[in-house]
Amino acid sequence: VFSNLRSVFWGESSRICVSHTPVSRLSFPRRSIECKESRIGKLPIQVPENVTITLESQELKVRGPLGELSRVYPSEVKLERQEDGTIRVKKATETRRANQMHGLYRTLTDNMLVGVSKGFEKRLQVEGNDLVLSLGFSHPVRMKIPDNLKVKVEENTRIIISGYDKCDIGLFAASIRRWRPPEPYKGKGVRYANEVVRLKEGKAGKKK
């Protein structure tokens, strides 16, 4: 009986050949992942005339009139100096991670060159009666300014932080803002000059 069932279901009488290839031996074509080149990453970086660069393997050192910076790059990207004097950040591998780092490290490299040649500045705005970090506490807040940054006060309501390292400027500005971020009802506090604070409607507004 069992042999008859095999004949009906497996097609012995109709001469149909059934493959007994194990599943483990089956192969499927692998689909390669194509990573598009970053629009920002592929742009060349101009080296200012007053900046000298040193490129050794995966480390870049830049020196300008405002200071000196260095950065070690991951293996996913590589730096190349072109004949026209520009720098290009290229992908070392065709992976999604390399594609993400391509644009990021191109921006970081450009920030280094601009920082040591021209510098950056970050503006903060303080709303209140006093400017010198009198933020409503029982005592004024005192913060030590890093050696590589300069702080200037304008119109008794603005603090301008400048320097050659954009990361240090952003961190110091954020540390000042962290003492008293803008509150959501009247917007009082420390905020970036171009920051938009969305205010909440108070209880009085809800009764109307």
UniProtKB/TrEMBL annotation:
<comment type="similarity">
    <text>Belongs to the universal ribosomal protein uL6 family.</text>
</comment>
<dbReference type="InterPro" id="IPR020040">
    <property type="entry name" value="Ribosomal_uL6_a/b-dom"/>
</dbReference>
<keyword id="KW-0687">Ribonucleoprotein</keyword>
<dbReference type="GO" id="GO:0006412">
    <property type="term" value="P:translation"/>
</dbReference>
<dbReference type="InterPro" id="IPR036789">
    <property type="entry name" value="Ribosomal_uL6-like_a/b-dom_sf"/>
</dbReference>
<dbReference type="InterPro" id="IPR019906">
    <property type="entry name" value="Ribosomal_uL6_bac-type"/>
</dbReference>
<dbReference type="GO" id="GO:0005840">
    <property type="term" value="C:ribosome"/>
</dbReference>
<dbReference type="GO" id="GO:1990904">
    <property type="term" value="C:ribonucleoprotein complex"/>
</dbReference>
<dbReference type="InterPro" id="IPR002358">
    <property type="entry name" value="Ribosomal_uL6_CS"/>
</dbReference>
<keyword id="KW-0694">RNA-binding</keyword>
<feature type="domain" description="Large ribosomal subunit protein uL6 alpha-beta">
    <location>
        <begin position="47"/>
        <end position="119"/>
    </location>
</feature>
<dbReference type="GO" id="GO:0003735">
    <property type="term" value="F:structural constituent of ribosome"/>
</dbReference>
<dbReference type="GO" id="GO:0019843">
    <property type="term" value="F:rRNA binding"/>
</dbReference>
<keyword id="KW-0689">Ribosomal protein</keyword>
<dbReference type="InterPro" id="IPR000702">
    <property type="entry name" value="Ribosomal_uL6-like"/>
</dbReference>
<keyword id="KW-0699">rRNA-binding</keyword>
<feature type="domain" description="Large ribosomal subunit protein uL6 alpha-beta">
    <location>
        <begin position="124"/>
        <end position="192"/>
    </location>
</feature>
<dbReference type="Pfam" id="PF00347">
    <property type="entry name" value="Ribosomal_L6"/>
</dbReference>
<protein>
    <recommendedName>
        <fullName>Large ribosomal subunit protein uL6 alpha-beta domain-containing protein</fullName>
    </recommendedName>
</protein>
